[in-house]
Design brief:
The chain is of the alpha/beta class and 279 residues long. The protein has a domain of 116 residues. Helices cover 37% and strands 20% of the residues. The chain contains eight helices and eight strands; from the N terminus they run αααβαββαβαβααβββ. It has a four-stranded mixed beta sheet with strand order 2-1-3-8, with helices on one face. Strands 4-7-5-6 form a four-stranded mixed beta sheet. α4 links the parallel β1 and β2.
């Protein structure tokens, strides 16, 4: 018999992982930034990376957000088929977001797309964006991944013809080059290949959750190509334009080749919690 999961536990857990995501950068990202700083030969680039690392340290120590743009809030939920609860999980996540907005605090970023009216609590129609996946077991894993607008606005998608697979590399490079310093590099680049128009975008975004120090040969080659652009930290030139590239793929229609590029700033923020499980 699995342990039941109660409403208040989920609410508190959501507040906790949002605080962690906003104030403490994952260790693999910090290590990658430290490595980049040690390898930079440009004084300006090194100075920018050192400023980023100092900012990260202050945020973690003082438990304050590492960036003034605390992002639009995205959650990935791995829902165990045998998990027990007597409430709507979405309701608990929304309540956690409202509480976190007040307590951390988070900048209210959720607005109506046309009127620009701000809800004031980071919730609204379709926001936070919650993505569910059914998995085996009786536990629930919730991952919070705040996404700032500076990097999100530089992301792109393209519907290529099946014969244009050799154009994927150029599309990724063009997207990063056009972004320049706007997404606050060094960036992490998520690439989604295949699926449908929306599936490719989902793949690209979820790819950002992968560890920055674990890349395939294909991803490493593309990372080297991106860094050869010379955009550098904060767009001021240097060796490090990106910390990592992660590619996710899905089968697609025989007549299409969707490709999406989701760019993340240096603050590749995310945190997770596992609730429930067997007694």
């Amino acid at each position: 018999m699995s342990n039941p999961i109660d409403y208040d536990t989920v609410v508190s857990a959501v507040v906790d992982i949002l605080e962690e995501a906003e104030t403490v950068l994952p260790k693999d990202v910090v290590v990658a930034l430290e490595k980049a700083a040690s390898q930079e030969s440009s004084p300006v680039a090194k100075e920018q990376l050192e400023a980023i690392l100092k900012n990260i340290g202050i945020a973690a120590k003082k438990k304050v957000p590492m960036c003034q743009d605390t992002g639009i809030l995205i959650f990935y939920v791995e829902l165990g088929r045998d998990a027990r609860m007597d409430f709507r999980l979405e309701d608990a996540i929304l309540e956690g977001v409202k509480k976190a907005t007040r307590s951390i605090p988070l900048r209210p970023n959720a607005v109506d797309p046309l009127t620009r009216s701000n809800s004031g609590n980071n919730t609204g129609n379709g926001i936070p964006d919650i993505k569910y996946e059914l998995v085996d077991g009786s536990s629930i894993k919730i991952t919070a991944a705040p996404k700032g607008a500076g990097s999100e606005n530089m992301s792109a998608i393209k519907m290529l013809n099946p014969t244009e697979k050799d154009s994927i590399r150029n599309f990724v490079l063009e997207t990063v080059l056009n972004a320049g310093g706007k997404p606050c590099p060094p960036v992490v680049v998520g690439v989604g290949i295949g699926g449908s128009f929306d599936k490719a975008a989902r793949l690209a975004k979820s790819a950002l959750l992968e560890k920055v120090d674990e890349m395939s040969e294909e991803e490493t080659v593309l990372l080297d190509d991106i860094n050869s652009l010379g955009i550098g930290p904060m767009g001021l030139g240097g060796k490090t334009t990106a910390l990592a590239v992660h590619i996710k793929k899905a089968h697609c229609h025989t007549a299409s080749l969707p490709v999406a590029v989701n760019i993340q700033c240096w603050a590749n923020r995310h945190a997770s919690v596992v609730l429930g499980g067997d007694e």
